[in-house]
Design brief:
Helix content is 34%, strand content 19%. The protein is an alpha/beta fold. It has one domain: TIM Barrel. It has an eight-stranded parallel β-barrel, surrounded by six helices. Helix 1 runs parallel beside helix 9 and helix 3 crosses helix 4. It starts with a strand and ends in a 7-residue tail after the last helix. The structure holds NADP nicotinamide-adenine-dinucleotide phosphate. NADP nicotinamide-adenine-dinucleotide phosphate binds next to strand 13 and helix 9.
Length: 331
C-alpha cells in the first residue's frame, strides 16, 4: 500500500481508503453486516488503514460497522474519516431528499450544519464508532441555510476539544472552499471523480493544487461500472440507487465495455484486472491524493487494495487517457 499526507496536516492515510457507504446498505439495496466487517478488517491487514464513513450511511449503521471492525486494532494505526451535516432525525435546514431507511420506513433528509447540530452529531458519531476522536471531520454537503463561518467555528471548537483532528469538506466548489478558509484550515475536499466523471478538473483541482489541499476522489470505480462486470440488461436490487443513474443505461454499459476492452491488454500484461488499472490511473491524476473505494465484501476490497501493487509509466497513463478521451457517454 502507498500512503499520502493530506495537505499541510500530519494526517497520512492509505491511497486506497475504504469507502463504507455501501457497507451501510442504504441506497445500495441492503447490506450483509458480517461481510462488511470482514471486508474492513481484511483491508486493514493489507495496509488499508483509513476508512471513510458518514452518519447518513444506513442512518448510523455504517459508522457502527466501522466501529465494530476496528475494535481490536490500535487506534493510532487507523484513520477514521466521517462527516456531518445530513440529518434524517431532525427536520431543519435545507431539504435534500426523501428516502426510505433500510427497514423501508420513510425518511426526509436535510442538509443542516448549524453549530449545536454539529456538536450533537459529533458525539453520536464518536459513540457509534467507539472512539474518542475523529481523524478527519467533513461537511457532507453545503447547507445554504447556515453561514459557513458558523459551521466552521463549531468544527474549530471540536478540534480544540481534541474530538476532531482535522477539518475537511465534501462536494465543495472552489468558491465555497475559499469562503470556509476564512474561518478554518481545511485539509481536504472529497469530491466525485472517476474516468467517466472528470468535472472537477476545471476548477476544484487547480484550486486544491494551488492551495495545497488534498482531494479525496469518491466513486472512482463509478459505483462498480468501471470494473466492467455490468452488461446491458443488468438488473439492480430493489432500492439500489444505481438503477436510475445514466452511467448504467444499456448504451453506456456497451460504450464503457468497449473502452475497457481497449485497455484490457495492458491490464493483462500487468496481471491486473481492468478495475485495478482504473484505480491506479485515478490516483496518478494531477491533484488526486486518495481514492475512496467502496466494497461489498473482502474479495472486492482486497482486489481494490492490490491496485497499488501495479505501476503505470507516464507513457502508459497517456495511452489510457488517449483511449478514454474517445469515450463519450449518453445522458
Ligand atoms: N461525500 C459524498 O457525498 C460521497 C458520495 C459517494 C461516495 N462517497 C464515498 O466514496 C466511497 C466510494 O464510492 P462508491 O461506493 O460510491 O463507489 P465506488 O467505490 O466507485 O464503487 C463501489 C462499488 O463497486 C462495486 N465494487 C467495488 N469493488 C469491486 C470489485 N473489485 N469488483 C467488482 N465490483 C466492485 C461494489 O458494488 P456491487 O458489488 O454492488 O456492484 C461497491 O460497493 C463511498 O463508500 C463513500 O465513502 C462519498
Amino acid at each position: 500500500m502507498e500512503y499520502r499526507k493530506l495537505g499541510d496536516s500530519d494526517l497520512t492515510i492509505s491511497v486506497i481508503t475504504f469507502g463504507a457507504w455501501a457497507a451501510g446498505g442504504w441506497m445500495w439495496g441492503g447490506t450483509e453486516r458480517s461481510e462488511a466487517v470482514k471486508a474492513i478488517q481484511e483491508s486493514y491487514h493489507v495496509g488499508v488503514t483509513s476508512i471513510d464513513t458518514a452518519p447518513i450511511y444506513g442512518q448510523g449503521l455504517s459508522e457502527e460497522i466501522v466501529g465494530e471492525a476496528i475494535k481490536g486494532f490500535p487506534r493510532d494505526k487507523v484513520q477514521i474519516l466521517t462527516k456531518y451535516g445530513m440529518r434524517w432525525d431532525l427536520a431543519k435546514g435545507d431539504f435534500a431528499m426523501h428516502s426510505k431507511d433500510n427497514s423501508g420506513r420513510d425518511i426526509d433528509i436535510y442538509k443542516y450544519a448549524g453549530k449545536e447540530s454539529i456538536i450533537e452529531e459529533c458525539e453520536n458519531s464518536l459513540k457509534r464508532l467507539g472512539t474518542d476522536y475523529i481523524d478527519l471531520y467533513q461537511i457532507h454537503w453545503h447547507d445554504k441555510t447556515t453561514p459557513i463561518d458558523e459551521t466552521m467555528e463549531a468544527v474549530t471548537r471540536l478540534i480544540e476539544q481534541g474530538k476532531v483532528r482535522y477539518a475537511g469538506v465534501c462536494n465543495y466548489s472552489a468558491e465555497l472552499m475559499r469562503e470556509a478558509a476564512k474561518t478554518i484550515n481545511l485539509v481536504s475536499n472529497q469530491v466525485p471523480y472517476s474516468m467517466v466523471k472528470r468535472d472537477i478538473e476545471a476548477e476544484t483541482v487547480p484550486y486544491c493544487i494551488e492551495h495545497n489541499k488534498a482531494i479525496l476522489a469518491y466513486s472512482p470505480l463509478e459505483r462498480g461500472l468501471l470494473t466492467g462486470k455490468m452488461k446491458p440488461g443488468h438488473e439492480f436490487a430493489q432500492d439500489d440507487h444505481r438503477a436510475s443513474l445514466y452511467f448504467f443505461k444499456d448504451e453506456n454499459l456497451k460504450r464503457v465495455d468497449a473502452f475497457l476492452d481497449k485497455i484490457k491488454p495492458m491490464a493483462d500484461d500487468k496481471q491486473a484486472t481492468v478495475g485495478q488499472l482504473v484505480l491506479r490511473w485515478t490516483v496518478e491524476q494531477p491533484g488526486i491524493t486518495i481514492a475512496l473505494v467502496g466494497a461489498r465484501d473482502a474479495t472486492q476490497a482486497l482486489q481494490n487494495a492490490a491496485s497499488m501493487d501495479i505501476k503505470l509509466s507516464a507513457e502508459e497513463i497517456g495511452q489510457i487517457t488517449e483511449e478514454l478521451n474517445k469515450l463519450e457517454l449518453v445522458k
